[in-house]
């Protein structure tokens, strides 16, 4: 965050000289964003802020399902029930789609390793 703070401070100093310069910030939590950069800097920057709510389990499930079909050209690389449970777990822990993909890919890697061990490769 220290490099981001430096960047935001530079943007702030520019905005005091060029008042029509704008800043757009996209976040999943305005509250978290303010706590990261501080209320004073946030207010000074006067950003146009867009807050996107974390994904829910249904949305995560649909994203994962679509990505699996796109990437693997298969529907049955993971059981439907397992996809639902994974989506629910991620939704309960922040709804971060990157975390969803990370956990899924770790599972694929682990399954591949176990298949290689069983086949003696």
Number of domains: 2
Strand arrangement, major sheet: 1-2
Instruction: State the separation between the terminal residues, measured CA to CA.
Output: 44 Å
Q: Give the proportion of residues in helices.
A: 55-70%
Report on this model:
By secondary structure, the protein is mainly α. It folds into two domains: about 1-50, no CATH class; about 55-120. It has helices at about 1-15, 30-35, 40-45, 55-70, 80-90, 95-120; strands at about 25, 50. A two-stranded parallel sheet has the order 1-2. Helix 4 crosses helix 5 (about 80-90). The model has no long low-confidence stretch (mean pLDDT about 85).
Give the arrangement of secondary structure elements.
Elements: H1 2-17, E1 24-27, H2 30-37, H3 39-45, E2 48-51, H4 57-72, H5 80-92, H6 97-119
Parallel strand pairs: 1-2
Entry keywords:
single chain; 2 domains; two-stranded parallel ribbon; 2 strands; elongated
Summarize the structure.
The protein has helices at residues 2-17, 30-37, 39-45, 57-72, 80-92, 97-119; strands spanning 24-27, 48-51. The chain has 121 residues and is mainly alpha-helical. It has two domains: 2-51, no CATH class; 57-119.
């Amino acid at each position: 965050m220290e490099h981001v703070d430096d960047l935001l401070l530079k943007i702030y100093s520019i905005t005091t000289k060029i008042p029509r310069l704008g800043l757009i910030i996209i976040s999943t939590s305005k509250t978290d964003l303010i706590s990261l950069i501080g209320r004073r800097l946030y207010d000074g920057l006067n950003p146009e802020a867009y807050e996107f709510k974390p994904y829910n389990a249904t949305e995560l499930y649909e994203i994962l399902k679509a990505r699996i079909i796109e990437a693997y050209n298969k529907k049955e690389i993971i059981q439907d029930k397992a996809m639902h449970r994974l989506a629910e777990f991620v939704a309960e822990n922040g709804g971060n789609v990157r975390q969803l993909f990370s956990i899924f890919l770790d599972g694929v890697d682990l399954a591949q390793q176990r298949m290689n061990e069983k086949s003696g490769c």
